[in-house]
Each structure stands twice: as C-alpha cells, then as structure tokens.
Amino acid sequence: MLCRFLVAFALLAPLAPAAAQDAAPPASVVVAFDDESSRSLIVEGLANKETGRAVEANDPVRIASISKLIIAIAALRLVDEGKLDLNRDVSDYLGWQLRSPYHPDAPVTLTHILSHRAGLSDAAGYIIPLGESLEAKVTDPAAWRETGAPGDAAFEYANLGSPIVATALEAASGERYDRLVERLVFAPLAVKACLNWVGCDADMQARAVTLYRDTGEVARDAPEDLPPNCTVPVAEGVACDLDAYVPGTNASVFSPQGGVRIGMMDLARIGQALLTPEGEGDEDDTMLAARLGPFRADRDDRQEFFCAYGLAMQLIPAPHRGCLDDLFGDERVRLGHSGEAYGLQSGLWIDPVRREGFVYFITEVPPPAGGEDTGGFTSREKALMQRAQALRAEGDS
C-alpha cells in the first residue's frame, strides 16, 4: 500500500506547480514615489510561468511606449550640451532630406516628430531591422498622412517617429543610441536599464519578466528571447553584430519606440527626475517635465485618447468631454506616458502639484478592439490604480 501511495504521489507531484501557476494572478507591479522616496504597493503574479518564479518589485520588463518619454529626456540633455536644436530641420542631423511627400518644401523638426505632428504614419511599418535603411523606409509614401504641414498637422500617433528621433540623436552626438541613453539618462540616475537587452547584465537577464498574452501564450522575453541569442531585429542574411553598426544610420534596431527594459523601482527614479527643478536659480522650481510641454489639446472623431500631448508626454485627463483618458478618476492633472504591447499595459504618471506619482505594469491584458498601440486605459488598469491609490492612502495615514 505504501508503494502505491508513493507512486501515486510521484505522479501527482509535478502537477502541483502547474496548478499554483494557473491560480496565480497576472504579473503586476505598482510603485508609488514622491520627489524624495519610493515604495512598492502591489507586487503579484509570476515573472515566468515555466519556472514558477514570483515577480519582484524591480524585475526588468519591457515598458513599451514609456520608452518614448526616455527618448525625449535624452534629447533635452543633448540640448543642454549644445549638440541639438529641437526646432532645426532634422535633415541637417540625418544627412539626407526628410520630407512629407504632401509638403515637400516644409522642414520637419524634432519638435514636430516628438509631438506626433509631423504627418508620419505607421502604415508602412516602423521596425527597420539591422541591415535595412531608415531613409528608404521614410521615403515610402505610406509612411506619411496628409493631415496638414509638419507642425500644423493634426495629431497622429506614429511609432515611426521614434527611430527617426533616435537616429538624429546619434548623428548629433556621434554615440550609439543605447550608449547615449545610458550616459545621459540611466547612469546619472543610478538606474539599471537597457534597450532590447543590449547592455543588460546577467543578473537582469535572470530576472526578466516574460510577457504573456491573455490567452496564456508567450508574447515576449521568454528565456530564448534573451542573450546570448540575438535580441535586435536583423534583416535576412545579415549577421546579428552591432560592432559594425554606424551611429546615425538606423537606431530602429534598439526599438526606441518601446524597447526599454527596466524595473519599476528604477522607473520610479525616472519619474522623480521629471519632478526635479531644472531652473538656474534657487527661486526657479520649473520641473524637467515642464520642458516637455506645451501640451496642445485636440479632440476630434479620430482621437479619443491622446487628447493633450506635448513632447513625448501626455496630460491626463484632457479638458475635453468624451476623451477616454481618465485613469485615476479624481480629476487631478497628471503628466506622463502609457505603454501597451504584447499583452502588457504600463504607465508612468506624475502629479506636478503634489510632486508625487506612480509607475506600474500589468500583464495578460486582452488587446483593445483597435489592435495594439491604439491606446486607452482598460478596466483592469483602472482597477489596479484604484487599489494603488487606496494602499498609498493607508500608508500615508
């Protein structure tokens, strides 16, 4: 009888971890911060279902379009170094002419692109693998919309702008984009982060959060997606070798539109930096975030989410009825950026009056009706932030 029991136990034992994994909630982390401190409020779920490893507060995750905010901070730092002018014709940096086919005489600037008012479109795609040409991509007429001349164009969210901006930053500085962001953004804030896993050490790779779709299917960053395997997009027949990459040619290989991997405790440090005064004198308390304005407000039938936007930074809730951008439900103005891709939703939001904020991610989110990268806060996302606000209030009382 004992032998039968042991055999039965041995057969059932492997099922226990799987059952526990099925019961685990989707991986979610929320960190609250002010300009002096940060603390984790919600840390739940599994970083990897295969191993059963629980997620931790600073496990690195692909934060999707919050990466665009990091581009903008890097651009401002190059402006401070005197190497970049956001209002100069970006063609001067790229070394070839960037023009909308609908407005061939109108210069395109980094301000136009960062504010999604250059007339760019994602219809031609926005991933340009190593070995292919960024210039060729943006000369495709499908890469543009006729929504007005650059600067006056109607707001049209376009991921394609990020590779253009990142490539211009490379050309202006002579530095590879991943190394430039490390020097200008990550290292000064003592943040451990990288793009497409390039530069992340073995410890970070071991703590990677695997992204799953709502179906349970692996979407991104499973162990086979990490080094030493190739982690950047590469054209067919081209070696996965960044040593020969020439800065200023095609920074799309680093996925600047969404490829930053970072933990939420470290992302909170970037949120704190946005609250930091950037003025020259003791009396000037203008925050870094203010330099990413002004926030132009739009609301039309095509745009129901990004209704108030500056330079890679959004203002929520926008002062429009019918704009679907009320995440917190308390009518307080917040600045930041959302992220959505591969079953993940993420956010970095600061309250510039109270000088505090939240960073978060949730996984296994069903795709929106319009497909990925269309924006919008889901009911799960709103519920997560309601929990976080309640927990923060408890801790403050």
Structure overview:
The protein has 397 residues and is of the alpha+beta class. The chain has helices at residues 2-12, 15-23, 66-80, 91-94, 110-114, 134-138, 161-173, 177-186, 202-206, 264-274, 379-396; strands at 28-34, 38-44, 46-48, 53-54, 61-62, 193-195, 211-212, 218-220, 260-262, 296-297, 308-309, 314-316, 334-341, 344-351, 356-362. It has one domain: Beta-lactamase (3-Layer(aba) Sandwich), CATH 3.40.710.10. The protein contains 11 helices and 15 strands. This is CubicO group peptidase, beta-lactamase class C family.
Spans of at least 5 consecutive residues with low confidence: 1-20
The main sheet orders its strands as: 2-1-15-14-13-12
Counted up, domains total: 1
CATH superfamily label? DD-peptidase/beta-lactamase superfamily
CATH architecture: 3-Layer(aba) Sandwich
Concise synopsis of the structure shown:
With 397 residues, this protein is an alpha+beta fold. The chain is 27% helix and 16% strand.
List the helices and strands and how they pair.
Elements (H helix, E strand, L loop, with lengths): L1 H11 L2 H9 L4 E7 L3 E7 L1 E3 L4 E2 L6 E2 L3 H15 L10 H4 L15 H5 L19 H5 L22 H13 L3 H10 L6 E3 L6 H5 L4 E2 L5 E3 L39 E3 L1 H11 L21 E2 L10 E2 L4 E3 L17 E8 L2 E8 L4 E7 L16 H18 L1
Antiparallel strand pairs: 1-2, 1-15, 3-4, 5-9, 6-9, 7-8, 10-11, 12-13, 13-14, 14-15
Helix pairs in contact: 3-7, 3-8
